[in-house]
Write a structure and sequence with these properties.
mainly alpha, 0% strand, elongated
Length: 198
């Protein structure tokens, strides 16, 4: 079994080296530990040759992991997973495309794909309903109280705390941030109670 696995690995390494050679990256191929003679031989291998090598079950490749690089890769992977988890939660809480584009750089195709993956449908729910006075004041207080949190985490906290769809939250906050009167603008805007457009 081990020889079979090693033979598969050898073929994968050969295919990689062949691709590097064909792409003109001979220095990178040589960096794999290949001499010029070895490069020339590998470059001539056909698909049939690779299949024969697999059947021989002979390993010509040594695998060695770089522990420092592996740790860095682990951190990067975990960071990306946290980002995706945050994005998914934003979508579950009703974030629309304009919000996801600005906060996460998410395009329309990815937005639709992610919503389908989460069982939310291809597109957002459309224009959210208006807020009543109590909801509006509650949103304003929570927005002020969450001032120290970073962008995505802040919106997630607001959506979870208020139960207001983030599309609506986003619309109100854009109004408040664009107003020049500061906190008073948020209360003044409450007269309309319909600032939840997408």
């Amino acid at each position: 079994m081990t020889k079979t696995i090693h033979a598969e690995l050898t073929c994968i390494a050969f295919r990689y080296a062949i691709q590097l050679i064909h792409d003109g990256a001979r220095d990178e191929a040589a960096g794999l530990g290949l001499t010029e003679k070895g490069l020339q031989w590998i470059a001539r291998l056909t698909e049939a040759d690779l299949q024969r090598l697999k059947e021989i079950r002979f390993s010509a490749v040594l695998v060695e992991f770089d522990e420092e690089a592996l740790s860095r890769l682990q951190r990067l992977l975990e960071g990306r997973k946290r980002e995706e988890d945050e994005e998914n939660e934003l979508l579950r809480l009703g974030a629309h495309l304009a919000m996801m584009r600005q906060l996460c750089g998410m395009g329309g195709a990815e937005y639709a794909r992610r919503r389908r993956f989460l069982g939310l449908g291809d597109t957002g729910a459309g224009r959210p309903g208006a807020l009543n006075e109590e909801q509006h004041q509650h949103l304003w207080r929570v927005w002020q109280d969450s001032a120290g949190q970073p962008g995505k985490a802040r919106y997630i906290a607001i959506g979870q705390c208020t139960g207001i769809p983030l599309g609506c939250v986003w619309s109100w906050i854009q109004q408040w941030e664009n107003a020049s009167a500061g906190p008073e603008a948020g209360e003044a805007e409450s007269d309309g109670l319909n600032g939840c457009g997408t």
